[in-house]
Amino acid sequence: MTQQTTLTTRAWIELTLLALIWGGSFLAIRTALDEIGPLTSVLHRTFWAMLVLWAIVLATRLPLPRSPRLWGAFLVMGLLNNVIPFSLMAWGQLYVPTGLTSIFNAASAIFGIVVAALVFADERITPRKAFGVGLGFLGVCVAIGLDALRQFDTTSLAQLAIVAGTVSYAFASAWARKTLSGVPPLVAAAGMLTGSSLIMIPFAVSVEGVPSFDLDARTWTAIAYYAIFATALAYLLYYRVLAMAGSGNLMLVTLLIPPVAITLGALVRDEALHPGEYLGFVLLALGLTIIDGRLWRRRATTV
Length: 303
Fold this sequence. Notes:
Layout: H1 9-32, H2 38-60, H3 68-92, H4 98-105, H5 107-119, H6 127-144, H7 146-151, H8 154-180, H9 185-208, H10 217-245, H11 247-250, H12 253-269, H13 275-292, H14 294-302
Helix pairs in contact: 1-4, 1-10, 1-12, 2-3, 2-9, 2-10, 3-8, 3-9, 4-12, 5-6, 5-8, 6-13, 9-10
């Protein structure tokens, strides 16, 4: 099956909606981490979202997946797209501000394009994309800061953990296109979250103990947001955009997330970013706009 790999107006609209939803998830996760551990927060996220999606699958009478090969693909997808990045980023957010976490998350687009080019012939890296990728990598390095890398303290380790999570997202996007094309988005999302929950239940319990349900209302509100809206609903959009625009273009959603996350972090948690971190995001954003190419093509036609 040939897959479209361009961003239509409809794809951009759904990407923007996805960015608004995910932008709020960084604040919600950081709020939950005030009371629960990072692995427990991930377990809540995948488990409740899984239940919501399977309820919708049953209500809409979609055919249930039965192929062992497909369930194996769901398990790998859950590991790459949920278990690894969610866990690394949740731990990283204990030490890294919400806005900076979202900036590092934007590097998913850079890594996604590189991985997609290695795997798919129709997503190869052109000279323009290569320049954009290089500029994006520079932006990530500037945001982290060379001094932080040289010191290699807990904060810099947390930053690197978040960046490692974005690399896992990139492989997940390619894996989804390669193994889950043709699977209904709702079923794909539910299956993926089932795979990740099967991994997270023993992992979280063995490390952080049996989760407590005696939590503050604020914590439950945060969990409800990032599990139901930022996971269950968001992944329906995720798979829709993947089918419309391809795995490399899908990762461009991360460019739209930081402004939302930075604004919420500043308003709710009084978080502030350093000038170098803003400069890093500007370079990363510029690299991504070069990769997309639309803005530059429009400027060329109007000159």
